[in-house]
């Protein structure tokens, strides 16, 4: 009985995690360059059941389920023309390098850049786009070729690079890249942004399925705890 309660509780936790992941996807369905996530479930390792009298194996027991990890879908999102010469979209693989206000280099597919207070290309949240030398790029008269070469009215010339590597999504939506190196074979489009690759139909369907599974686990948990309560308080009580 205790094992059944534990299994039901683990199912509730796992489904709650799935709901949170899919809910976050739907919340960011309109976020530029957002990449959707999927929670992967797997069962806990099975335990060998033994007879209490002589320890002879009688079979295995599954101890429940848990979220083993969250995988990010890095597939291409739809490209949308904006008409703004500051916006840039990636058609292909790779990430932009941007500088956080504290100086840390982060990676992103978000491309809705605009001039910040100092006239540099930056995201709405303040991170400045970096060129291949690690310098911020002036937005004045910014002109970009498909291969990433750029010029501007501030006299800068250079390249807007793209990077690839082992990507790990951060809680703020940006990425950390392990073994970052230059990406090749991609095209940069000025005046476009890449939309989120969230499939709202898939996530809405999955959200309803996970909610029903959570409710089923909750019912099993309540049944188990109610039965255990009766076993402790009523069965075998002396009158």
From TrEMBL:
UniProt keyword list: Bacterial flagellum, Cell projection, Cilium, Flagellum
Pfam family, one: Flg_bbr_C
GO biological process annotation, one example: bacterial-type flagellum-dependent swarming motility
Record domain Flagellar basal-body/hook protein C-terminal: where: 190-232
One CC-aspect GO term: bacterial-type flagellum basal body
InterPro entries in the record: Flag_bb_rod_N, Flagellar_FlgE/F/G, Flg_bb/hook_C_dom, FlgE/F/G-like, LlgE_F_G-like_D1
Domain named Flagellar basal body rod protein N-terminal: residues: 7-35
Origin: domain of life: Bacteria
Keyword tRNA-binding annotated: no
Compartments it resides in: Bacterial flagellum basal body
The Flagellar hook protein FlgE/F/G-like D1 domain, residue ranges: 89-148
Protein family (similarity comment): Belongs to the flagella basal body rod proteins family.
Record's protein name: Flagellar hook-basal body protein
């Amino acid at each position: 009985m205790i094992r059944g309660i534990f299994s039901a509780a683990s199912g509730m936790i796992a489904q709650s995690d799935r709901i949170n992941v899919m809910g976050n996807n739907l919340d960011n369905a309109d976020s530029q360059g957002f990449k959707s996530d999927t929670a992967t479930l797997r069962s806990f390792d099975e335990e060998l059941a033994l007879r209490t009298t002589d320890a002879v194996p009688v079979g295995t027991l599954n101890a429940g389920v848990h979220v083993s990890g969250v995988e990010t879908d890095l597939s291409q999102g739809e490209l949308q023309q904006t008409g703004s010469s500051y916006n840039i979209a990636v058609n292909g693989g790779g990430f932009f390098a941007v500088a956080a206000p504290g100086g840390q280099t982060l990676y992103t597919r978000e491309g809705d850049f605009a001039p910040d207070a100092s006239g540099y290309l930056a995201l709405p949240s303040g991170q400045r786009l970096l060129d291949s030398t690690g310098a911020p790029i002036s937005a004045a008269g910014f002109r970009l070729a498909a291969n990433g070469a750029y010029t501007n009215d501030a006299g800068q010339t250079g390249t807007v690079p793209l990077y690839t590597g082992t990507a790990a999504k951060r809680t703020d939506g940006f990425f950390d890249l392990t073994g970052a190196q230059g990406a090749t074979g991609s095209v940069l489009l000025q005046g476009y942004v890449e939309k989120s690759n969230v499939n709202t139909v898939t996530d809405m369907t999955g959200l309803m399925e996970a909610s029903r599974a959570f409710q089923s686990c909750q019912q099993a948990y309540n049944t188990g705890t109610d039965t255990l309560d009766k076993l402790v308080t009523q069965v075998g009580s002396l009158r």
